[in-house]
Design brief:
The protein is mainly beta. It has a domain of 68 residues. It is 4% helix and 41% strand. It has a six-stranded antiparallel beta sheet with strand order 1-2-3-10-5-8. Strand 1 and strand 2 form a beta hairpin.
């Protein structure tokens, strides 16, 4: 870390594929050396339905739609999240993102605290 901050160009950052969901993403937490949060940029392709319906033990999550609209299932209800809107979800609330549209959705997703909390998978 330089002088208390780090910076990354998301356009040129390393894009990886999530082992759990198959979602292409940029791990901003790793790129920036985050210690207290886990930020990522998710690129959710049209027709993508592989994210797990899940909750967490400790990790609260913040979702912001960079381009979309985004689609989510939260606590048994399906929501369309307009571009430029944000959602905060408590650890024990069940959630998943998906894309049943013909456009790519791009999300900024931040989990905190930055603990190993792989999630508890639930039936929908």
């Amino acid at each position: 870390m330089t002088d208390g901050y780090e910076m990354v160009d998301v356009e040129t950052a390393e894009l990886t594929l999530s082992e759990k969901s198959g979602t292409r993403n940029v791990d901003l937490g790793e790129a920036l050396g985050c210690e207290k949060m886990r930020p990522r940029i998710w690129f959710v392709e049209p027709g993508h339905e592989r994210k797990r319906y899940h909750s967490h033990e400790e990790q609260e999550e913040f979702y912001y739609v960079l381009s979309g609209p985004g689609r989510m299932r939260i606590a048994g209800e399906t929501h369309t999240i307009p571009e430029g809107n944000a959602v905060r979800i408590s650890p024990d609330t069940r959630r998943k993102t998906f894309n049943d549209t013909d456009r790519e959705h791009v999300w900024l997703v931040v989990g905190a605290p930055a603990v190993e909390d792989p999630g508890i998978v639930h039936e929908e």
